[in-house]
Amino acid sequence: MFTRSGSAKWQGGLKEGKGTVSTQSGALKNLAYGFNNRFGDEPGTNPEELIGAAHAACFSMALSNMLSGAGIGNIDIQTTSSITLEKDGDGFTVTKAHLVTAISGDGDKAQIEDLAQKAKAGCPISKLLNAEITMNATVA
Signal sequence: where (predicted)? Predict the structure, then answer.
């Protein structure tokens, strides 16, 4: 079993407040986030893009494992996960995660596409998200 952690600090009210996020590994350390990062265009991060990055990384690793396990070599995977946040009553809900991935490797295109679908459903972050997860996959 593995346990990894991230942390957040927040000061102030929702709209005027400011926060920072950090990860246990130190890859992120006191990275700024706030209302205008999340709902506007101010530089900084937000929870949805962090989830998107985690989802894209998890999917890519899961697919790489499946492809190499199937004997496919020269694997190259580029993935983006777009997380949709929608108004839900008085709050908001993450309603969708959409993967866009470009995959190349020495193998059968149909087999690679099938394994991409399995990785989409099976990666641990996909399993964590309680949202519709869709994907566009391009195999070169």
Answer: none
